[in-house]
Amino acid sequence: MRTGMSALALGLLSLGLLPALPSVGWLFLLFLSALMCLFTRVWPIGWFLLGLSWACWSAQQALDDRLIAELDGRTLWLEGRVTGLATQSGRSVRFELDEAQSRRAKLPRRMQLSWFDGPMVRTGERWRLAVNLRRPQGLLNPHGPDREAMLLARRIGATGTVKAGEMLAPASGGWRDRLRQRLLAVDAQGREVVLAALVLGDGSGLAREDWQALQATGTVHLMVISGQHIGLLAGLIYGLVAGLARLGAWPGRLPWLPWACGLAMAAALAYGALAGFQVPVQRACLMLATVLVWRLRFRHLGAFFPLLLALVGVLLCEPLASLMPGFWLSFAAVAVLIYCFSARLGGWRPWQAWSRAQWVIAIGLLPAMLALGLPVSLSAPLVNLLAVPWISLAVLPLALLGTATLPLAGVGESLLWLAGGLIDLMFRALGLLAEWRPPWTPPPLSLWAWTLVCAGALLFLLPRGVPLRGLGAVMLLALWAPREQVPHAEVEVWQLDVGQGLAVLLRTRHHSLLYDAGPAMGTSDLGQTVVLPTLRRLGVNQLDLMLISHAHADHAGGAVAVQRGLPVARVLAGEARELPAVLGAQVCSSGERWEWDGVMFSLWHWPSGKNSNDRSCVLLVEAQGERLLLAGDMEADAERAWLESADAARIDWLQSPHHGSRSSSTEPFIRAIAPRGVMISRGRHNGFGHPHPQVIERYRRHGLAVHDTALQGALHLRLGRHGEVEGLRAQRRFWREPPS
């Protein structure tokens, strides 16, 4: 039985490794092969193929429900019903629309929409909306999150921006929305949003500072309704019934164990209903049901069997769940606890078991965190030792009890006020701890180093006295295995995918340079959310130079966040006086040259340029005869001035000036420098129309290879090898659109 279930689980999990889904014909053959193997009692292969065919079929259904390419970027009037809880982010309202219909085209069943300056929509309302539709896609950077995969896992078939709308029918049955509004209206000492997250699983309203504190201290799991919260509530109910039975206060005619399990499950389902039964809650409830059934009837099957059963159950219900990082972390955490706490000789005192659980989780989840590219909180074991009981035993019971007693005048408000005070105290402490010990983002490990870390964690978590346990600690040192260095006289170039902006990382053997820092507008700072995390994931611990081409927000907006997060030895800028004084930027000076590790760098600047774009600081990089020109946003006049300068020469690779605007990349400029290829950094469906069709046609006419972050994700080049530019989308995954 275990063998068959394990094979079925492996088949379901194999979905995430596929570069492309099989065609209908191959899928049918796969299913027939599975049935044939099961009929001939070749059980493992049969169950594996059955799981794989089911996962592929389910994934294909989700892909088929995506917005068709012909509607990408178009604006349509459509009708639909608001589902889930709408959230406010700055001046934008974000929500999901279900049952979307249009007279002009077939639409995906579910969409994720944003409405700038729009009304706060309610769950269950029906709206008629004018929406600029887009196929699901997101920024794609090295070792970073894959938004396209996460949207597919949630079966979001389209995203869009609302231009106008009218409500057709008011909300019906939106009790969660009404409850949230009630919770946000109480006085919880400024922590009303956190209360809504604990009670309803709605953490979208938390401030960025709160999320950063939670991530830095490894306590994000405390603010979302997950297995821990579900298990805690069920455990309290189970313990209450068991305690009454032990004291003789439970009715003798009712068997206490079935009632304890039934009431615990009922409490978990009720709490899950509060959270809207999202995938993490479904997973938690299914795992709890498995554990309770195991407790009633099947304890002889072992401790790992409930976990395996829950894993198979979750994947059968939603095969795409394996595309979400939370899926791997939650199951890995439970597996680690079972591995360390089951089948041990002797017992631990409660405080010993609790303290060991924290460092066991920290070490056991290391391989998963490394594989997912997530930062590792160094303070998490210590923080969770206190924060988990603080939330679980004090805040959460008060929050739930206060919510339940809101109809009683003054009672519910008082309990929620007290819960809010406890939350505020915890967040103040988390903020201090986050500043004291920020999270560690390890550089990407090679496969052999990651395998050593996995084996080391498994050995180190064995009981004391087991042979080779000490070897595990030694194998964990592979975390600091030397990564591949850039060869002498070469430059590793990453043009990051930052939407309508620019950020280019250049690394020689011992030096790092960042050219522009990504956009920041309003509450969105891609320097903080994209550039800085990507630099850390690539192993950049400090910058020898941050060069800001000019002061426009799409180039300079993220500079302060980058400087705040990494040591920066020097800052140069084309418009130093226009930048925040905290950067301490110096003026870019034409003719400045230097050499790093056999690579030549030189600057050009036209201070008399008529506009900010023409005053961009331009960087020329040369490695073993191969040349790259980073041109910022310089336009026609600046291009003409550069051609007249002594620096003008043939270029191999060009960062497309001004994102491919018609005012740049003039015919004389392209003819004179004659590059092999051009790298465009821009946002998909940007409002400026970049790159202009005339510019693209000019590139094509001159034989340039055109590389575009909006279509290919982050672009990678090894300058000095005379190779080609590679986009991250060239690494095929079945959920990604192939690069155009």
Automatic annotation (TrEMBL):
It comes from the Bacteria. This is DNA internalization-related competence protein ComEC/Rec2. SMART domains: Lactamase_B (SM00849). Gene3D superfamilies: Ribonuclease Z/Hydroxyacylglutathione hydrolase-like. InterPro entries: ComA-like_MBL, ComEC_N, Competence_ComEC/Rec2, Competence_DNA_uptake, DUF4131, Metallo-B-lactamas, RibonucZ/Hydroxyglut_hydro. NCBIfam families: ComEC_N-term, ComEC_Rec2. Residues 500-684 form the Metallo-beta-lactamase domain. It is found in: Cell membrane. Keywords: Cell membrane, Membrane, Transmembrane, Transmembrane helix. The chain crosses the membrane at residues 32-57, 230-250, 256-277, 298-321, 327-347, 359-378, 390-408, 415-433, 445-462. It is a multi-pass membrane protein. It holds the Pfam family Competence. Its main location: membrane.
